[in-house]
Design brief:
Strands 1, 2, 5, 6, 7, 8, 9, 10, 11, 12 and 13 form an 11-stranded mixed sheet that branches. The chain has a two-stranded antiparallel sheet with strand order 3-4. It is elongated, with a radius of gyration of 31 Å. By secondary structure, the protein is an alpha/beta fold. α5 packs across α11 and α11 runs parallel beside α20. β3 and β4 form a beta hairpin. It has 34 helices and 13 strands.
């Protein structure tokens, strides 16, 4: 009985909570979503002591040092940090070579036109109000304040009065943390089970190439590079290093949060030093001071997200070149001092990658934290251990163990890279291409419809003259004019069905009128004639509401606004990065379908601009060599780039321009126009327009969601 109790007492509940959580998620599937609030509650519980812990540990740790000790410790800590950055970044950039060949293409996102966030290093690192920094969770500014106060206390002869009080407070915080940690396996189980049970196969498959790459990198950093480097040059053995960080690692993996395990890391380091009889007052102080500092500075965990930036560049058809690495590295080291969610958009902007790529990172940020956070934990342990033994003059390289581990970590780098490359090559062959996604989209709710490829002669003879709402309902037919190949507003999918944003709205309009719908093609120059002669009742196909046509037809209230952009070959996009770059060309042939009025004004001021009208957008992609770029909406441009992945979309800086689109009716058809305007307001209010926009423009839910698989459902079947 006593042996059973001893086993029960010594069992690692953190590890078992993680294992049982994954098992419960696989067993019960989406039923485990109910545990998510419990896990969130435990995370908040862990955060209770964190900010006070940072304040107390830094002030007490620095205050107890002498001036000579501070200079010695911080100087050597800087050298260790630079070493870890150098070897870590080398490994990160090496893994970018494992990306396979790829046909780029992605849906539009509003983030494309959002200004890149500016990193305010002053507010991040200068604590104008330390209490506000604590309340706002601004860790860097709070750390700077605590370092300044701690160092200011070093020469003070009466510092022991304050330090003794803070030391007691620190002991109290440590007791609270230990009590909470004792209960934390419950939180780990809840969070792991809810994540394992609710994550969909689509989410896992969406960025599978990125995930293979980042997981292989994470394994190399966490199990090879950092622990073997510590084992090679310090008295800490590889096995002991893994053992001492396991609880903090498991917690960080489960929660995706490093901040809450900082006290666990500090206590783990101090405990292991006592175990191997390397502990003294100085080493304990170094651990207390360097753990929060290491968290504040860019860690190798944070820097692993550089892989996403290079992945986004690859995904959009603009892979990072070797010549860009120094600039990106410098930008990353500066920007990662701030929050990752500030740094990534900034780096995307530096690389001129469409900003909508950031939405991909956000959608997978929960999973990304499963690599970033545990890698950060391993990095902090390695950094602090190496610094402590550097200060103690116990770093050694002239021994067999050093040669063994250094050789092993060097040999395992190409092995991990090969595993990543092989897996990604296989995944790239089995991944659904972007054009297949958009080519298989369908209109969900339809009414009986007829799709014509010409205007019937009876309509041309006036047999179907201008009609009002009553006439449309009596004849039971609504006639819609559409532009062919106007992706994503009106186009034919892989099954030959007419689909698109406007087509979906047309079916909804016909359903509300209680009639069938008939689609009649037209070309943009024929819009006025066809409407006013009554060839169809309504034109709707991403039509620009412009001043030129206002006097000839009647437009509805705007359905939405579009962003004007340029489409060109991927390797030529840099030519159009800024407005000045566009206008400084000696001769610039810009193909367009419906922007003649706008481009004519530009041509008057810049004669080198040569607008070329084309019958439809596809004509540009059939013969791109005839033009420098295509003028089109960014929304349409991204959709077309999914069919033609060698092309990209760019909005030149300084040339941002929005324009409204809507439906059009004949000039004198006020009755139908009033009905459509009222109908549009209702559809906007009830979410129909926004849902249609999300599906056809943003691509949300464009792939059928499959219910999360679970063992219990499998057994029932």
């Amino acid at each position: 009985m006593s042996s059973f109790l001893a086993f029960f007492k010594n069992i690692n509940w953190m590890l078992w909570s993680l294992i049982l959580g994954i098992a419960a998620g696989l067993l019960f599937g989406e039923r485990m979503a109910a545990l998510q609030p419990l896990g969130t509650g435990f995370v908040k519980l862990m955060q209770i002591t964190i900010f006070p812990y940072i304040v107390v540990s830094l002030i007490v740790g620095l205050g107890k040092f002498s001036q000579a000790q501070v200079k010695q410790v911080l100087g050597k800590a800087t050298l260790v940090m630079l070493l870890l950055w150098a070897v870590g970044l080398a490994a990160i950039w090496a893994f970018t070579l494992t990306l396979p060949k790829h046909d780029a293409g992605t849906f539009f996102s509003p983030a494309l036109v959002a200004p890149a966030p500016q990193i305010d290093f002053i507010s991040q690192y200068i604590p104008a109000n330390p209490f506000a920094s604590m309340a706002e969770g601004n860790v860097p500014a709070l750390v700077i304040f605590c370092i300044a106060l701690g160092m200011a206390l070093i020469p003070n002869q009466s510092k022991h009065v304050l330090l003794d009080v803070l030391d007691v407070v620190g002991q109290g915080l440590s007791v609270i943390s230990k009590k909470i940690i004792a209960l934390f396996p419950i939180g780990i189980f809840a969070m792991t089970a809810s994540t394992a049970g609710t994550i969909s196969q689509a989410e896992l498959a969406n960025l599978q190439v990125y995930w293979v790459m980042v997981i292989c990198l994470g394994i190399y950093l966490m199990l090879v590079l950092l622990p073997m480097l510590v084992a090679a040059i310090t008295p800490v053995k590889y096995r002991d290093f893994i053992f001492v960080l396991r609880n903090a690692w498991i917690t960080a993996f489960s929660t995706g949060n490093v901040f809450i395990v900082l006290p666990v890391i500090t206590e783990g380091i101090k405990s292991h030093l006592r175990k191997i009889k390397q502990s003294d007052e100085t080493s304990d102080h170094i651990a207390e001071v360097l753990v929060p500092i290491a968290y504040t500075f860019p860690s190798l965990g944070k820097l692993t997200t550089l892989l996403f930036v290079t992945f986004a560049a690859w995904l959009t058809g603009n892979p990072v070149g070797v010549e860009q690495i120094p600039n990106i590295t410098l930008s990353a080291m500066l920007s990662y001092f701030a929050n990752v969610h500030i740094a990534i958009p900034y780096l995307l902007d530096v690389l001129k990658i469409p900003a909508d790529s950031y939405q991909l990172y956000l959608s997978m940020s929960v999973l990304s934290a499963k690599v970033v956070s545990p890698t950060t934990v391993v990095y902090i342990f390695a950094f602090v251990f190496m610094t402590i033994f550097y200060v103690r003059k116990q770093l050694h390289l002239k021994r067999i163990r050093s040669f063994y581990y250094l050789s092993l970590l060097a040999a395992l780098l190409p092995a991990c890279m090969f595993a990543s490359f092989t897996a990604n090559q296989w995944l790239a062959k089995n991944t659904q291409a972007a054009d297949e996604v958009i080519a298989n989209m369908v209109v969900a709710d339809t009414v009986p419809a007829a799709v014509l490829n010409h205007v019937p002669k009876s309509y041309q003879f006036g047999d179907m003259a201008l009609t009002n709402v009553d006439v449309i309902q009596k004849r039971g037919l609504l006639r819609i004019g559409y532009l062919t190949d106007n992706v994503p507003f009106s186009y034919f999918n892989q099954k030959g069905e007419l689909v698109g944003f406007d087509i979906a709205l047309a079916h909804k309009l016909a359903a509300d009128l209680g009639v069938k719908v008939e689609f009649i093609p037209f070309k943009k120059p024929d819009l006025t004639e066809y409407l006013n002669k009554g060839y169809f009742d309504v034109a709707m196909s991403g039509l620009e509401i412009n001043v030129k046509d206002l006097a000839r037809v009647r437009f509805s209230n705007q359905v939405m606004t579009l962003q004007l952009a340029l489409v060109a070959k991927d390797h030529e996009l840099k030519r159009f990065a800024k407005r000045e770059d566009v206008l400084n060309h000696k001769e610039l042939k810009l193909a367009h379908v419906e922007y003649g009025a706008l481009l004519s004004k530009i041509k008057n001021s810049y004669p080198q601009v040569k607008p070329v009208s084309i019958p439809n957008i596809k004509a540009y992609f059939d013969h791109p060599e005839k033009y420098d770029a295509l003028v089109v909406s960014a929304e349409a441009g991204f959709a077309w780039s999914m069919f033609y992945p060698e092309f990209g979309v760019i909005v030149p800086k300084g040339a941002e321009r929005h324009y409204p689109i809507g439906l059009a009716v004949a000039r004198y058809n006020q009755d139908l126009l009033s009905y459509i305007n009222g109908w549009l307001e209702i559809q906007k209010a009830n979410g129909t327009v926004s849902n249609t926009y999300n599906y056809w423009i943003l691509g949300q839910n464009s792939q059928t969601r499959v219910k999360r698989w679970s063992l219990i459902d499998e057994w029932r079947e």
